[in-house]
TrEMBL record, chains A, B:
Binding site for substrate: Y126, R140, Q237, Y241, T357
Domain Fumarylacetoacetase-like C-terminal: 130-420
Protein's UniProt name: fumarylacetoacetase
Gene Ontology BP terms: homogentisate catabolic process; L-phenylalanine catabolic process; L-tyrosine catabolic process
One Pfam match: FAA_hydrolase
Length: 428, 428
């Protein structure tokens, strides 16, 4: 069996040929977990590992004996490493397992993917400091970044039931819209439908209620991450969000990518956490040497848009944004785990912690239309002559992410796509 | 079998003698649902109905064939009414079922109760207008009630994992505390631990994502209600809550009472919804004639405190508050259902919707210490000479509720108790 370090070896190749192609999101160095149904009408979800353009049915390999992803996520770090090493060894070129495992492969294109685990609770953080600053200016011109921002990893609870998987079609939501200062609000369709480019961190083993997870153990409670789109209705948000935060402006839908890339796979792409000079140091419960040295994530993130007209014309999607999580996030996943639990709140396997919108410093690295158009003031022109301030019906919005570093094999996060549907008829 | 109306008949008595005693919370007219384990070490939860000081094991009666409360909650209104009528008939004096059902009874005192259903998502609303006004004054003296309050049933998502059942012992939480304006925050134990007197409304049958529930159908999606204590760390809250709302100040624990009193049982205690003259009318999606006529709930609510010293001295708890939900709540449960789903958010059976703190108009009807002590300024003196601004370690806080009306049998909500434990040692 390979050691954990060997699972990252750039020389490692798979007997699944598509996994060895340049630019592939899922080489044998990645091995992300997801849940699938076959197109043959099988109802129950099974756990799969993406490899090239195939999915390995993990239970069929005999390495696990469950279809419960949350149970797998709760495994000890040692068991997780051992499972990764065993999958890596079995999929490696020359493995004696090739004959037995060949029958456990499905073409990805033939599968229906699901939300990758049961998400008991979902929390959305606000770690993108450039996002917080730009949006803060729009909502509160005189007070963009709150005094607590550099001390508290700001977060709030989100809605778990409405999280769907990539490929989701979401209806444009209704909500209360407030126009002129002296006019009453009206119920209407959001006119400012937006996306948010986020990473979703998945909890592994949880903690008991009342027992905080210290920084030194926080990474052990992280299972992995996926792409996450926190769709937002900005007009609804602006009217409803005081004093208790966003509610209907966010809970109509969120979309997650189907593959959880594990913290083990991400090991070569960890980076130092850099705080700007002059910023306060984190309080001790949010600080550790390991976190300063390699708590951050070096992940390139992109947003792509394909309108209905582009799709009809056979035109490809256009890229709206390209940035890096490392430059965008003020707080690391470990800090989010430590903060979330410091008061005793219990995390459970499969809980989702959104990063918040990961916008870079530069305007074209912004992770939402609210930022790219400065609140709808600067209309974006697309190559086919269309333009956008916010999303229109028929738009497909796709998040992509990947990790690249000299001396390591590129690993991808796959994609997180969603398409805006017109609303149902309004009878209310 | 009794008709639904007959289940409320004041003349109806049970062969369970304790159910006929004056002041009993659980007469045969109530029939609330809960989940229990026997003290005999049986691990699996079973569905029970409270009757007097006993619990009827519902599956043992043969009326249901599941231990899954959420499945029972998802039943159609017609099936729910039929089940209630059958339970009522079987427990009524003279029933031929008495012999068979006698063996399905357990003494409540011998059982361990659980959170009454699986709570997938928990939302906390803010329907207590007197609470919102008083607290608004403390947090924002110049802007107590936000301009959206009388238009939007303000709510936010809460933490489901940390909800426990009455009898819960909760640790005093750690959190960031901000002192003087120019001093950095510190991690410390909350010094302003508070309770919030709420009702918790439980969803029955849900809705599909993207399909709002109109007002006319909202009550059909309500299963029932319980008492709910939204413990709050006020010092943590004041520092963390801008701009995205409360987080660690609330998610360390919440407590719910074990018995869900059904909407069927509450039918005799519905009341007109009165909006003060001059207030805006609700938008059409939040309005219906039925809601105006009997959307509100006539429920008396109380808060009781027993300190450790009182307990040691054998002294009973003292009442801090007595008020009525009808006077406190600006929005009805049906309006909360309609609002929650208007953007397409999907409710699922067992989802919990907190009412927010139900404080009456008068100062002694306040549902939190924050209000009773005006932010800690007015210390409360207890009969034994102790005093409180906020909760201290060892305090047991108990919520109680009941419905009383001339011509109807009193029904109770049971109690929702929690005891504050000292924090664990702080190593962070």
């Amino acid at each position: 069996m390979n050691t954990l370090n060997e699972t990252h070896d750039p020389k490692l190749r798979s007997w699944v040929a598509s996994a060895n192609e340049a630019g592939c999101d899922f080489p044998v160095q990645n091995l992300p977990f997801g849940r699938f149904r076959t197109a043959r009408g099988v109802e129950a979800l099974r756990i799969g590992v993406a490899i090239g353009d195939q999915v390995l049915d993990l239970r069929a390999t005999g390495l696990i004996h469950t279809d419960d992803m949350n149970a797998l996520m709760a495994a000890s770090p040692a068991d997780r490493r051992a499972l990764r090493a065993a999958i890596s060894a079995g999929l490696a070129e020359g493995s004696s397992r090739q004959g037995a495992w060949q029958g456990a492969l499905h073409a990805q294109s033939a599968l229906e993917m699901a939300v990758p685990c049961h998400i008991g609770d979902y929390t959305d953080f606000y770690t993108g400091i450039h996002h917080a600053t730009t949006v803060g200016k729009l909502f509160r011109p005189d007070n963009p970044l709150m005094p607590n921002y550099k001390w508290v990893p700001i977060g709030y609870h989100g809605r778990a039931s409405s999280i769907g998987v990539s490929g989701q079609h979401l209806r444009r939501p209704l909500g209360q819209l407030k126009g002129a200062a002296d006019a009453p609000p009206v119920l209407g369709l959001t006119q400012r439908l937006d996306y948010e480019l986020e990473l979703g961190y998945f909890a592994g083993a949880g903690n008991a209620l009342g027992e905080p997870i210290p920084m030194g153990e926080a990474e052990q409670h992280l299972f992995g991450l996926a792409l996450f789109n926190d769709w937002s209705a900005r007009d609804v948000q602006a009217w409803e969000y005081v004093p208790l935060g966003p509610f209907l402006s966010k809970n109509f839908a969120s979309t997650v990518s189907p593959w959880i890339v594990t913290m083990e796979a991400l090991a070569p792409f960890r980076a130092p956490l850099k705080r700007p000079a002059g910023d306060p140091q984190p309080l001790p419960y949010l600080d550790s040497a390991a976190n300063r040295e390699h708590g951050a994530l070096d992940i390139t993130l992109e947003v792509w848009l394909q309108t209905a007209k582009m799709r009809e014309a056979g035109a490809p999607a256009v890229r709206l944004t390209r940035g890096n999580a490392r430059e965008a996030a003020y707080w690391t996943p470990a800090q989010l785990i430590a903060h979330h639990t410091v008061g005793g709140c219990n995390l459970q396997p499969g809980d989702l912690l959104g990063s918040g919108t990961l916008s870079g410093r530069k305007p074209d690295e912004a992770g939402s239309l609210l930022e790219l158009t400065l609140g709808g003031k600067n209309r974006i022109t697309l190559p086919n002559g269309e333009s956008r301030t916010f999303l229109e019906d028929g738009d497909t919005l796709t998040l992509r992410g990947c990790c690249e570093r000299a001396g390591a094999v590129r690993i991808g996060l796959g994609e997180c796509a969603g398409t805006v549907l017109p609303a149902v008829a309004l009878d209310a």
